[in-house]
Every structure is written in C-alpha cells, then in structure tokens.
Specification:
mainly alpha; about 80 residues; about 80% helix
C-alpha cells in the first residue's frame, strides 16, 4: 500500500499518525494523578554518589586533556 503513495502523502500520513499518537498519550497522562513517592525519595542521600560521579568526571576530563596534549605534541614533532 505504501508503494502506491507519493512521498508527500507518506509525509502527511506519518505526521498525522505521530500527532494522533502523541495527543492520545498526553491525554491519558493528564487525567491520572500518579503515585506519590516522596516518602521513599526523602530517605535517600545522594551526596556520596554525587561526589563519586564528579570524581570520575574529573578523571575523564584530565585523561582527555592529556590525550589532546599528547596529540598536539606529536603533531608538532611530526611537522618539524
């Protein structure tokens, strides 16, 4: 069936289907209140996890800066 449609028709059909599915999803979630998880999330302390994540990120930044420096030095040595 899709082989018989032109490209413009396919684009219009795809956009209509995408809009319809997104509107039906948005309508379904707007009516529900959801589950209240504040008693569970209030008892969790993420400070130690955050410190560990930041330490790993700082290590990766240092590693990438070192690799970039080595590449720059090698390019400089090659061109000399």
């Amino acid at each position: 069936m899709l082989n018989k449609l032109s490209n413009k028709s396919k684009v219009i059909l795809a956009s209509v289907l995408m809009a319809a599915s997104s509107l039906s999803f948005a309508e379904g979630t707007a009516t529900g209140t959801g589950v209240d998880l504040t008693p569970l999330t209030n008892s969790i302390d993420f400070s130690t996890v955050l410190v560990a994540i930041m330490a790993v990120a700082a290590s990766l930044v240092t590693l990438y800066a070192g690799v970039a420096g080595v590449r720059w030095v090698l390019r400089t040595v090659k061109s000399a």
